[in-house]
Amino acid sequence: MTNEKPLACICLPLEPELEARIEASCRLEHISWAASLDVLVEAVRDADGLLIGNRLPIGEEVFAAAPKLRVLAGVGVGYDAFDVAAATKRGIAVSNTPDVLTHAVADLVLGLLFAVSRSLLENAEYVRSGGWSHAARPPRLGFDVRGRTLGVVGMGRIGRVVTARAQALGMRTLWNDVFSELPAGAPQSDYRELTELLRESDVVSLHTDLNPTSHQLISADELACMQPHAVLINTSRGPVVDQTALVEALEAGRLAACALDVLEQEPPAADDPILALPNALLVPHIGSATEQTRYAMRELAVRNLLAVLSGEPPPTCLNPEVLD
């Protein structure tokens, strides 16, 4: 029997104090955050724990190469990049970092809503380009959000906070989810089947995770249900929306605008048609991108990692059955 400390592989930059917490009970090995999957597979062969973002798909190829692996600590609330079922078969605990990013993502949703509703980017460019100084024709007028209907698809943690904030702005709210009862503590809102929600909403905000049933949940048929003046906001996962169908709807004027924090391909190809659309507001997957939130995510991932390696249940485990 050996008393050697477990090996923790870290594929993400960490603050010195977080590294120190790991090194207090583990051997620490760094892997470049930009490493390819092949490099990662070689690096984790002796690992007991792996802390990583969701850039790479982590599944059987990694697990088979790392027979000692006990915990996969993800940094992010989404875990579609991780094969949780394969990890469970091998007794590997998989964790994510929910809750700590809820308010940051909700803030972004409201920011995107206001950016679209008040034409903020167009007006900023109008000033910067000299249009205001030369009395050029100004951008289109915006619209008031008060009194408009917001449809929230996915009434999880983020969807509930977005609903509450929209109601505080005077918006009417609708919701849809795979369940048809409001979760405990959720703000009161009217349930609709998905197509009904799309027909009634002036703004639709997506907050579902990515799984086989939500892949291209919003496709051509669903987009056809939306009103021509409606706006689609997506801060969940890119493949929840059929992006080709979305581009077609925006080009044809069947949808007024979209505001996307996520795309089907990230980053997009230089010739991706959506980049050329003036009614598509695109930001680079920044839902959790505040200093405080990103630190909280990394800190929670470290706690998950260390808990499993010390024989304790992690705070946020996706497959708690392996802990038994």
Explain what the structure shows.
With 324 residues, the protein is an alpha/beta fold. It has 2 domains: 7-98 and 292-323, Rossmann fold; 102-282, 3-Layer(aba) Sandwich (Rossmann fold). Helix content is 33%, strand content 15%. Strands 8-7-6-9-10-11-12 form a 7-stranded parallel sheet, with helices on both faces. α5 (102-117) crosses α7 (157-168).
Write the layout of secondary structure elements.
Elements: E1 7-11, H1 16-23, E2 27-30, H2 37-43, E3 49-52, H3 60-65, E4 71-74, H4 84-89, E5 93-95, H5 102-117, H6 120-128, E6 149-153, H7 157-168, E7 172-176, E8 190-191, H8 194-200, E9 203-206, H9 220-225, E10 231-234, H10 243-252, E11 257-260, E12 280-282, H11 291-309
Parallel strand pairs: 1-2, 1-3, 3-4, 4-5, 6-7, 6-9, 7-8, 9-10, 10-11, 11-12
Helix pairs in contact: 5-7
- Compute the number of strand runs: 12
CATH H-level superfamily title of the largest domain: NAD(P)-binding Rossmann-like Domain
What is the 3D shape? elongated
Question: Helical segment tally?
Answer: 11
List keywords for this structure.
324 residues, alpha/beta, Rossmann fold, seven-stranded parallel β-sheet, 11 helices, elongated
Q: What's this model, at a glance?
A:
The protein has helices at residues 16-23, 37-43, 60-65, 84-89, 102-117, 120-128, 157-168, 194-200, 220-225, 243-252, 291-309; strands at 7-11, 27-30, 49-52, 71-74, 93-95, 149-153, 172-176, 190-191, 203-206, 231-234, 257-260, 280-282. Helices cover 33% and strands 15% of the residues. The radius of gyration is 22 Å and the shape is elongated.
